[in-house]
Amino acid sequence: MFSKKNDGNEFSNEGKGSSKKIIKFFKSTRILLYWHLFWCVFWQYILTSLF
């Protein structure tokens, strides 16, 4: 019984932590998407100019 209660508490804590991480992830995805698009365009420009 004691181990099961601990597992439940750990899962509830992980659930709260993961929701906060997901919110932070969605906030950071905007910057990452712009950065990714910039690099894609940058590398396409270099490859097309070289070849």
UniProtKB/TrEMBL annotation:
<feature type="transmembrane region" description="Helical">
    <location>
        <begin position="31"/>
        <end position="47"/>
    </location>
</feature>
<keyword id="KW-0812">Transmembrane</keyword>
<keyword id="KW-0472">Membrane</keyword>
<keyword id="KW-1133">Transmembrane helix</keyword>
<protein>
    <submittedName>
        <fullName>Truncated TcdC</fullName>
    </submittedName>
</protein>
